[in-house]
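From the pipeline queue, job 12 of 40. The input is one protein chain; the requested action is below.

Action: predict structure.
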Amino acid sequence: MKRSIALLLAFIAVSVFGQTHAPRQITGREDTILAKVRAMGLPVVEINTVNREFPHYYSIDAPEGCYGHSITGATKVPGRVTISLGDSLMFDSGEYEEDVSGMRVNIRGNYTARMPKKPYKVKLEKKNDMLRRGDVRFYDKNWLLLTTQDIKADVGSKVAEMLGMPFVAAFEHVNLIFNGEYKGNYLLMESVRRNTDCRINISKEGYLFEYDPYFWNEDVAVPSDILESYVQYTFKYPDQDEITEEQIEQFSEMIHRVESSVLDGSYPEYVNVLSFATWLLAHDLLGFKDWRGCNYFLTKYDYSDTTKVEMPCLWDFDSVMPDTTDWFANQWFTKHNYFVFRFLFNNPNQAFLKEYVRLYDELAPTFFDEMDAWLEDLRHSELAQPMEQAIVLDSIRWKEARKPFDESIEYAHKWFAWRKKWIDQHIVEYRQMIIPTGIDVVLEGRDIFGEGNAPVYNLQGQRLSRPQKGINIRNRRKVVVRDNR
């Protein structure tokens, strides 16, 4: 059986791969080969565009003072998209007719768009659920076809689910055929988008925004007051071509309040501490390499003073579970990022630090055993054999070695065993940072500033220019001042 599969894949590689993007007719022989690809056991997404046109784009580099490279001028090509499994047609957008049927497809992404294997965005002309869950709540126009690396998205999504994150993007593994050409193994996936029924739940007066290193390629961006200048806030909702000057001003005021609060310790009034701690713990469990501002999505349900900023989801799992010899794997995400967490972890108001430690202590007794059991279920699931074949096929198509499905399962087991040991050893540092509930030192007011230049705070986290009578905080210890003269 394995020899037959290998011969089939080699035949497909010789016969189909290496085709150019020039429009052409599919020969009978190629059609037969692609029929065999369709029979491999994964859903097959087929995109056929008007005049067999492929989308294109232009690459651009970051301006001075910023980093990265991105794309611009991405064309949106109209056409039809279908999904089938074997001989069964499971989804059909219909032929393209503006606002009625069909879809438009374009290349998306920043760094990944420059890779030979391209990620795509599919926008349906009429809302539907491309994942076919049988519920109109899941209807949306916007869907993604993302390049995949073994089971990283499966593992990352499972962690997000186990931590109870508000939005875990649904997806399935598929094979993609684009204008008759096999393009590889992809994730057909929901996008990060406002949809109160099934994706990001915010009101029409709310914000879905990103702390974004690619702000320089957007029309609207709002700078931070306290963070690096080469990352700014950009908007996912409202759309950039619809946002008003008044909304930008309101948003800027809100960001100023939030960032000020993480400096003076009043942040629990403005941010959902549990949400921020959950997002960060997920990154530390998975060992994300994205630490310079990528994929930080945030929301505020509306503009009222009663709602707080939250971090609702994880995104882009390509960099999770790095090799344990990698520098990234041996660092806390919290210590090497460029967002507000460095202020929250070293804040006189220890609400965030305590929540982070509490979450891990609550999670650890069962999380790793549950993850091992889930990985074994995945190993023996109906997905295993089709994915094993699809990974081999994708490797041949793009001439890039991919980790086999079973080997990915084994590596994930080893990763979480190693990660548990590593975090258990290092979280002691965070526990030691927590100020005990008792009184550590009793000093006269004139003595509290007597040791170096360590700042002094009140119980609200506000920095003091002089000691106040009662309880003060210095060097993470509570200090009673009997006399503030």
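Job complete. The first helix runs from residue 2 to 15.
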